[in-house]
Amino acid sequence: MRGIEEEIIRILTEEGAAFIRFTDITELPPEQNRNLPRAVSFGITLTPSYVQKVKETPDYVQMIIAQNQIEEDEFHLKELRAGELADRIAELLVLEGYQAYSLSDNNVIATHAWDAENLRTLLPQKTVAVLAGAGWVGKNNLLITPVYGPALTLGTVLTDAPLHIAGTQPMESKCGACRICTDICPAGAIYGKAWERHIPREERIDIHRCTTCLKCLVHCPYTRKYLKCRE
After folding, report:
1. How many helices (H) and strands (E) does the chain have?
2. CA–CA separation, 173 and 181 (whole Å)
3. What SS3 class is residue 98?
4. Model confidence pLDDT, tens digit, residues 85-114
5. Among candidates 55, 53, 8, 61, which has minimal Cα distance to 184?
6. pLDDT in tens, 65-89
7. H helices of the chain, where?
8. From residue 109, how far is each of 81, 103, 120, 122, 159 by CA, in Å?
9. What is the pTM assigned to this prediction?
10. Which residues of the chain fall below pLDDT 50?
């Protein structure tokens, strides 16, 4: 089995994954884990130059939408890349004789696992990343990693392949009393409540008011720490 694990790591590393983790997901309900016991979770970081550009440009997202440049945007392109890589890993596992299910946007929509009315999936990728010990869910509803903050996009594959699972534990939230994402949100969509698994998303954030302006991502103290380490 080490051969397939090494191949997964090789592919994702060559494609720029900043972290790659194999994790147990048996504690999730069947409607979420699709009766598959393990998952591959990985993240692709946004470049410091991109994060800095978004941070320094007022209404960055509105600007690129107005200029029809959304398809050239780094965040958009890396979300696509993460999804394509998840699909590729799932295909590799299936060819090896295992079950696999990619949580790419395309696959989630194609398999009717996307609730368009409530803007949610059956299994958020950040939930798997938290189980894998990659980070915690911040008050901004994004995965926060100690090294990169939320400045990354996620890829996830569920599988029954007997991957070696490291003894990782979910991280506790390190947001503390910080309210930067709450105070900077122009839509007032973030309520400033710390994430806990049993607390409904609606008590922490109004996803329908969120404009994906990226301000809560680029101004997170852990994102600033990521930028400072790359100066």
Report:
1. 10, 8
2. 14
3. coil
4. 999 999 999 999 999 999 999 999 999 999
5. 55
6. 999 999 999 999 999 999 999 999 9
7. 2-14, 30-33, 48-56, 60-66, 74-95, 105-110, 125-131, 180-184, 215-218, 221-229
8. 17, 9, 11, 11, 19
9. 0.95
10. none
